[in-house]
């Protein structure tokens, strides 16, 4: 009885197994094959770093182009017509088109989230990705990593510091690209398109651009030097005096990209933002600062911020970026 049942079960098992192999055979010869994965879903992060640098530079060139054209217009006509020739709209839009399309054409299966929306974009010439990858090879970024396109979210900011762009405070203007893997920023690119044109990039655990290497070691017990937004400097200044005492120095500046870099290179000890901020303003700086060993969190402290495709694009509770003593700053600001 026992034996009979076992034999019957294994007969059924055999039939199922044989049937499975027949189906597998049919599927692999006729249908889309199991073994040929669509390689557009396999993302080389080295290529994506190159694509991000290329995108940031292309966007930056568009911003400069619009700036120069606009200056010519102002010189020839005395003033620009409102709306018709709004330089921010034009620069934002052209930069978005260049950045978004150069990324999506090279990596069609990734998610790209931009501050701008794309309508009809002009065709523009896209430099070869191979050349950009080759340029990276001189920086010794180590072995490549393959990621699944579904895990990749790229955040782009086609024009950071728009207000300063219109005020000709061009040192604050940047374009930014950030690659998050499973919601975590791992590649950050910040490009300053106006003279002196400068590209800063970092890939966590792989490498950083030469201008972020061999930075001076932060000094122990250094007095806090906060960098804060020009637009709400007064409020942060007051809060910072309350939180940190009179020894605090406050620098007001613009552009989240600009301020993150000042912290990354040690020109400021903390970037403090007390109001809501968009994630495309934050992501690239967060990747660069973490690659260099620092921290970026909401000003209210952890939990960490999610940079995935379905995460909110807004950070409600402010921002703190530091290279050291992060928890000390968080505690100081906690009760203000
Ligand atoms: C900062 O503090 C000064 C002096 O207490 C006050 O006059 C000013 O309104 C405050 N500014 C802001 C933006 O809170
Ligand atoms: C940091 O300060 C130095 C010296 O003032 C300056 O040359 C540099 O542009 C500043 N910022 C960055 C991101 O290097």
UniProtKB/TrEMBL annotation:
<keyword id="KW-0472">Membrane</keyword>
<feature type="binding site">
    <location>
        <position position="157"/>
    </location>
    <ligand>
        <name>Mg(2+)</name>
    </ligand>
</feature>
<dbReference type="InterPro" id="IPR020550">
    <property type="entry name" value="Inositol_monophosphatase_CS"/>
</dbReference>
<keyword id="KW-1133">Transmembrane helix</keyword>
<keyword id="KW-0479">Metal-binding</keyword>
<dbReference type="GO" id="GO:0052834">
    <property type="term" value="F:inositol monophosphate phosphatase activity"/>
</dbReference>
<protein>
    <recommendedName>
        <fullName>inositol-phosphate phosphatase</fullName>
        <ecNumber>3.1.3.25</ecNumber>
    </recommendedName>
</protein>
<feature type="transmembrane region" description="Helical">
    <location>
        <begin position="12"/>
        <end position="28"/>
    </location>
</feature>
<dbReference type="GO" id="GO:0016020">
    <property type="term" value="C:membrane"/>
</dbReference>
<comment type="similarity">
    <text>Belongs to the inositol monophosphatase superfamily.</text>
</comment>
<feature type="binding site">
    <location>
        <position position="115"/>
    </location>
    <ligand>
        <name>Mg(2+)</name>
    </ligand>
</feature>
<dbReference type="GO" id="GO:0012505">
    <property type="term" value="C:endomembrane system"/>
</dbReference>
<feature type="binding site">
    <location>
        <position position="281"/>
    </location>
    <ligand>
        <name>Mg(2+)</name>
    </ligand>
</feature>
<dbReference type="InterPro" id="IPR050725">
    <property type="entry name" value="CysQ/Inositol_MonoPase"/>
</dbReference>
<dbReference type="InterPro" id="IPR000760">
    <property type="entry name" value="Inositol_monophosphatase-like"/>
</dbReference>
<keyword id="KW-0378">Hydrolase</keyword>
<dbReference type="Pfam" id="PF00459">
    <property type="entry name" value="Inositol_P"/>
</dbReference>
<comment type="pathway">
    <text>Polyol metabolism; myo-inositol biosynthesis; myo-inositol from D-glucose 6-phosphate: step 2/2.</text>
</comment>
<dbReference type="GO" id="GO:0005737">
    <property type="term" value="C:cytoplasm"/>
</dbReference>
<feature type="binding site">
    <location>
        <position position="160"/>
    </location>
    <ligand>
        <name>Mg(2+)</name>
    </ligand>
</feature>
<dbReference type="GO" id="GO:0046872">
    <property type="term" value="F:metal ion binding"/>
</dbReference>
<feature type="binding site">
    <location>
        <position position="159"/>
    </location>
    <ligand>
        <name>Mg(2+)</name>
    </ligand>
</feature>
<keyword id="KW-0812">Transmembrane</keyword>
<keyword id="KW-0460">Magnesium</keyword>
<dbReference type="GO" id="GO:0046854">
    <property type="term" value="P:phosphatidylinositol phosphate biosynthetic process"/>
</dbReference>
<dbReference type="GO" id="GO:0008254">
    <property type="term" value="F:3'-nucleotidase activity"/>
</dbReference>
